[in-house]
Amino acid sequence: MSAGSALGIAAAVAVAVTAIGWRTVLTMIAVSVVALAVVGFVNVTSIVFG
């Protein structure tokens, strides 16, 4: 990840936090992390059992 995209993500997170508050942002991040974990797990199991 380049510094530019990291700064862009940080700025987007800062704007989101200011607009909708910490709890909503943290919830969204948690949901996306869980979704990625589930997708990865499904991919691995389909490769193992495929």
How do the strands and helices of this protein lay out in sequence?
Layout: H1 3-20, H2 22-49
Organism: Lentzea flava
Keywords: Membrane, Transmembrane, Transmembrane helix
Transmembrane segments: 26-49
Order of helices and strands: HH
Number of E strands? 0
How much helix, percentage-wise, in residues? over 70%
Mean pLDDT: 91
Structure annotation, total helices: 2
Overall geometry comes to elongated
Which class do the helix and strand fractions yield?
A: mainly alpha
Query: Mind telling me the C-alpha Rg?
Result: 15 Å
Approximate strand percentage: under 5%
Low-confidence stretches: none
Instruction: Give the end-to-end Cα distance, rounded to a whole number of Å.
Output: 32 Å
Oligomer: single chain
Main beta sheet: none
